[in-house]
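ESCALATION

Customer reports they have been waiting on this structure for their group meeting. Please prioritize. Original submission:
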Amino acid sequence: MNKVTKVVLIIGVMVLILGFYFYLLGTRGISLIQTGGAVNIGLGIGVLILPVIGIWIIGATLKAGFEHQHLGQRIRDENLELDVSDLPRMPSGRISREAADELFAQIKGEWEKDPDDWRNSYRLARAYDYAGDRGRARETMKRAVALEREDAGS
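Update from on-call: job pushed to the front of the queue and completed.
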């Protein structure tokens, strides 16, 4: 079994487990509402909202993951993936802070020349991730996804 198959299998099992959990929450919420009384009805509605929020979170996470995988595959196909194989690493396996910062500065310079190219935004998001800035990496990856959609649509 290859790595991708394992990951897909793990995600599938987790979604099934969460689906069962949401089902249990939903039945508990309905039974609370059916017992009547203002407090029970309020709690029941609150419990019913939890699975809805959970389903939305799972959907949004899976959608983002598929979009990022799509961009990653396009970047690999175009041979534009960041090569970090020769960068120095810490004992944990992460790229050293100095090397990640140098890589980031280089990639940010490329991005500044053409910030509307999704490829540059993707590469910048990866550089943010290597530098340890996960928040900016996510925001920049969202931008890359939006730019790629525009590029594919035109």
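Sent to customer with the following note: The mean pLDDT is 89.
Escalation resolved.
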